[in-house]
Design goal:
- This protein is an alpha/beta fold and 313 residues long.
- Helix content is 28%, strand content 24%.
- A seven-stranded mixed beta sheet has the order 6-5-4-3-2-1-16, with no helix packed on it.
- Helix 4 packs across helix 5 and helix 5 packs across helix 6.
- The structure holds zinc ion (ZN) (2 copies).
C-alpha cells in the first residue's frame, strides 16, 4: 500500500524533505477576509464539474479553480484519471478550462499530480497561478519526465506562476490569488506511518458557497480540524476522501461504515454537504453498496462518478 501511494520511492522522498521550503506568500489571520468574495459572486451560483478522482473544476461568474486534475493513469494503482482527450483539453486551456484563475494541487502523490502535465498546463496558461506544496514544486522543477533534458529551462518559464505557502502542521494562511481569496492549511496525510507527504487543504468561497477541498486527510488526526476551526466556518461543501465514511476491506473486498470518520466529518468539519472523492475503481462497489447508509448519517452526501458530470449549487 505504501509503495502504491508513493510515486517516487524512499530516495526521492529523502531529497524532497531536504529541500528548503520557500515562503512566497504573505501570512494573514485565517478566514478574516473571505466574506467579501461571497457577496460579489453570490448571484451566479457555484458550478462544480467532475474530472476524475479528486479532480474538479469550480466555476462562478468567470472565476475558476481547478483542483488535483492534472494527473495521468498509473499501471500500478487503479485510480480514475481523466481521459487523454480531456487532459489535453485542460492543459491547452480550451473551454470550459480557459481563463482558470487558480490551480490547487494538494500534494505530490501520483494520483493528485503529474509534474509534466502541470508544467505543460502552466506553459500554455501563463495567467493561471498554481498554489501548492513545496514537494510539488520540487518535482515540477526536477522530475518532469517530458522535460527531462531541458527541465530547468522549462521550469524557469513558469516558476513565477507557482505560489508555495510555508506552513507547519495545523497552520493556515490566507492569500488572494488572481482575485480569489484562499485559506490554505497544512494537514497530515494518512496515519503518519505510511504515505508521508505534505498536504495542503483549501477553503474558499465561490458563487456564494464556502468550499473545503481537503483530499488525503483520513481522520487519523481529528485535532487538525479542531485547530483550524472548520466546524464553525459554515462550510457548504466539503470535498473529502470517501474513506472518512466507508472503509473498504483488505484487497478492496468487504466494506464497513467508518463511524468514527463520520463523527469527525459531522462534528469537526460540519459541512452542509459532503462530496465523496478519491474512490478508486475497486472501491466503487463498496461505495455503491454503502452510500445509502452514509446518506442516513450525512444527509445529502454527493458522489460524482462520470467524467464532466456537473452540478450547480
Ligand atoms: Zn496521497
Ligand atoms: Zn490520493
Amino acid at each position: 500500500m505504501s509503495n502504491r501511494h508513493s510515486n517516487r520511492g524512499p530516495f526521492a522522498l529523502f531529497i524532497i524533505l531536504a529541500v528548503p521550503i520557500m515562503a512566497t506568500v504573505r501570512c494573514a489571520t485565517a478566514g478574516a477576509q473571505v466574506a467579501a468574495t461571497a457577496t460579489m459572486t453570490q448571484s451566479s451560483g457555484l458550478t462544480v464539474t467532475y474530472i476524475a478522482h479528486c479532480g474538479f473544476l469550480f466555476s462562478s461568474g468567470g472565476q475558476k479553480i481547478l483542483t488535483d486534475a492534472l494527473i495521468e493513469p498509473s499501471k500500478e494503482w487503479p485510480y480514475t484519471a481523466p481521459s487523454p482527450d480531456l487532459l489535453k483539453k485542460i492543459e491547452r486551456g480550451e473551454p470550459p478550462f480557459d481563463h482558470i484563475n487558480v490551480v490547487l494541487i494538494s500534494h505530490a502523490h501520483v494520483d493528485h499530480f503529474s509534474p509534466a502535465s502541470s508544467v505543460r498546463f502552466l506553459l500554455n496558461n501563463p495567467r493561471t497561478v498554481l498554489v501548492t506544496t513545496p514537494e510539488v514544486r520540487w518535482f515540477m522543477e526536477h522530475d518532469s519526465p517530458d522535460f527531462r533534458n531541458i527541465e530547468s529551462q522549462e521550469f524557469k518559464k513558469i516558476q513565477s506562476q507557482v505560489v508555495v505557502p510555508d506552513l507547519d502542521w495545523k497552520q493556515s494562511t490566507t492569500l488572494e490569488v488572481n482575485g480569489i481569496k484562499l485559506e490554505i492549511a497544512r494537514l497530515k496525510h494518512g496515519d503518519d506511518g505510511q504515505w508521508r507527504s505534505i498536504v495542503y487543504a483549501a477553503l474558499f468561497e465561490l458563487g456564494g458557497k464556502k468550499v473545503l477541498f481537503a483530499p488525503a486527510t483520513l481522520g487519523y488526526f481529528p485535532e487538525e480540524y479542531t485547530a483550524l476551526g472548520y466546524a464553525k466556518r459554515g462550510i457548504d461543501l466539503a470535498f473529502l476522501n470517501f474513506n472518512l465514511t466507508i472503509q473498504p476491506g483488505p484487497g478492496w473486498s468487504g466494506a464497513a461504515l467508518n463511524t468514527a470518520g463520520i463523527q469527525t466529518v459531522r462534528n469537526l468539519i460540519a459541512p452542509k454537504v459532503m462530496v465523496l472523492m478519491h474512490v478508486e475503481e475497486p472501491a466503487k462497489a463498496s461505495v455503491e453498496k454503502l452510500l445509502p447508509e452514509v446518506e442516513k448519517q450525512l444527509p445529502g452526501t454527493i458522489w460524482f462518478q462520470h467524467e464532466l458530470e456537473s452540478r450547480t449549487f
